[in-house]
Amino acid sequence: MEPMLLEDCDGSKFPLCFNNVFTYCIKSGICVDKNDTMAIFIYIMMLEAGFVTPDYSNPQEESTCNVHSSFHYQRFLHLTRALPKNWKQNNVYNFTFILAPFTQHQCSITAIVIADDFVVNCKVKGISNSTFCMLIDPSMYVVQSGCLLSLNIYQNLKTLSVTFKNIISNSVKTLILDHYSLRSSSLQGLPPEILFNIFNYCDRNTINCIKRTCRYFEKMCTKQAS
């Protein structure tokens, strides 16, 4: 099966999104270093979570994607054929995304290079307590400089993808959907009665770990224990 997402890059073949965005950089004469690559990965992973850029519009998609906030592969590939304007300025990277159809809640991502680390901040407009942050060490994922389309300069991309989505993209998506009492495609989106059944099979250590993930699970696990 052809790799589709960033996390599918296993060292044997690039996903098409990879080829799209790095081919764009090469044709545009953009010199990409290790930090630029991390910023591009962030752009790709936000698109994988169902986000789009604010200027994206495709009327034909109405008939092919019933739920706009879900992952749409053709839309995803289209958006990886270029990078947003002014995405990079003096080691500061800025991206703006929306989760359609909730266009009023723009997600602003700012990534700053501090020493050898990559600090990522995400803020959602119009929702309180909506700031997310994570620290990335680029050398864990881009091991050397070289041809962008060379497989041997990348590693641990699945780890990067899972970590970023847990901390940033999926958390932001869940926050927006929760704001409108909508369920997301996640453990948190399951009905309470199913969650209670799942928790019955978990040991105490697992329950404690689940409780620490968010306030909703903290309440659910407390009810389960009482």
What are its keywords?
single chain; 226 residues; alpha+beta; Protein Transport Mog1p, Chain A; 2 domains; 5-stranded antiparallel beta sheet
Notes on the structure:
- This protein folds into two domains: 6-180, 3-Layer(aba) Sandwich (Protein Transport Mog1p, Chain A); 187-224.
- It has seven helices and five strands, in the order H-H-H-E-E-E-E-E-H-H-H-H.
- It has helices at residues 16-27, 34-48, 73-79, 157-179, 192-200, 204-211, 215-225; strands at 88-89, 92-99, 102-114, 117-124, 131-136.
- The chain has a five-stranded antiparallel beta sheet, with helices on one face.
Number of helices: 7
The portion of residues assigned to helices is 25-40%
Separation, N- and C-terminal Cα atoms: 47 Å
Q: Compute the number of strand runs.
A: 5
Strand order of the largest sheet: 1-2-3-4-5
Question: Structural class, from helix and strand content?
Answer: alpha+beta
For the largest beta-sheet, the strand count, sense and barrel status come to: 5 strands, antiparallel
Name of the CATH architecture of the largest domain: 3-Layer(aba) Sandwich
Q: Roughly what is the average pLDDT, rounded to an integer?
A: 84
CATH class of the largest domain: Alpha Beta
Order of helices and strands: HHHEEEEEHHHH
Work out the strand percent.
Answer: 15-25%
Kindly provide the radius of gyration, computed on alpha-carbon positions and rounded to a whole number of angstroms.
19 Å
According to CATH, the fold-level topology of the largest domain is Protein Transport Mog1p, Chain A
Low-confidence stretches: 62-66
- Number of domain modules: 2
